[in-house]
Design brief:
110 residues; mainly beta; 5-stranded antiparallel sheet
Length: 110
């Protein structure tokens, strides 16, 4: 499966997420990777059951349990409250729903 490579970014100065269209029209890739101003989040290539794109840093609900989506061990996966690693495959489990992200909704993963 070939996936689209794109990003979104948490702007540390403005405390908001910039979409891919804003990023590619207003920022250089080097600016996006500047840790002083942005936290880049890569698209996993997957969508939740509602068609919402899943990015690193998203918090997903799967059968009533919350997981944080991360890139680790050479691939995308998620950590749950038990700290177990769950790899994300080419197809996402249908009950999965994006319910927030670690920047705008940190209370969901505490």
């Amino acid at each position: 499966m070939q996936r689209t490579i794109k990003f979104r970014a948490w702007d540390k100065t403005l405390n908001k997420i910039h979409s891919w269209s804003i990023i590619e029209n207003h920022f250089t890739f080097e600016e996006l990777l500047d840790d002083n101003f942005f936290e880049a989040m890569q698209y996993t290539g997957l969508k939740d059951k509602n068609g919402v794109e899943i990015y690193e840093g998203d918090i997903v609900d799967f059968w009533g349990r919350k997981f944080l989506v991360v890139y680790n061990l050479g691939g995308f996966g998620c950590f749950g409250s038990n700290e177990a690693w769950h790899p994300l495959g080419d197809t996402i489990y249908r009950p999965t729903t994006v319910i927030g992200n670690r920047y705008e909704n940190p209370e969901l993963i505490q």
